[in-house]
Amino acid sequence: MPTMKARIVHITIGRDWREVYTFAAKPENMPLWASGLSSGLEPDGTDWITSGPLGSARVTFSPPNDFGVLDHLVTMESGLKVHNALRVVPNGDGAEVMFTLLKLPDMSEEHFAADADWVKKDLESLKKIMEEQETTDGTERR
């Protein structure tokens, strides 16, 4: 397969990167911010099953790590496997969250742009949640 067109969609979050990673790494939290993937995830062994805008899919998450890697492999009902590279990295006292969006074969430019907009909306939801939640020491973040 030839390389695919890629777009990095990112957002800066005013919250310690480790707290952002810890929240975002929990599959149970994904429906709160990742509308592009799921309206809910159900555990199935070490994987998770979701029903989202693209139908049912099996999701395999990267194991917990100290590097902010939140990659996940989505296997669609059709058998298509989509590797989603998602990273949380330190940015001063906050975090930068980056999603690498790949333009799949046979995907139109319009669909690719719409996917990028959807990812941006999801990252904005994550930002809102993280910047409005209380910190681990109990103080309010605003």
Features:
single chain, alpha+beta, Alpha-D-Glucose-1,6-Bisphosphate, Chain A, domain 4, 7-stranded antiparallel sheet, 7 strands, 25% helix
Summarize the structure.
The chain is α+β, with helices and mostly antiparallel strands and 142 residues long. Helix content is 25%, strand content 35%.
Model description:
This protein has 142 residues and is an alpha+beta fold. The chain has one domain (6-132): START domain (Alpha-D-Glucose-1,6-Bisphosphate, Chain A, domain 4, 2-Layer Sandwich). It is 25% helix and 35% strand. The protein contains three helices and seven strands. It has helices at residues 17-24, 30-33, 109-132; strands at residues 6-13, 41-44, 47-52, 55-61, 72-76, 81-91, 94-102. A seven-stranded antiparallel sheet has the order 1-7-6-5-4-3-2. The longest helix has 24 residues, at 109-132. Residues 137-142 have low confidence and may be disordered.
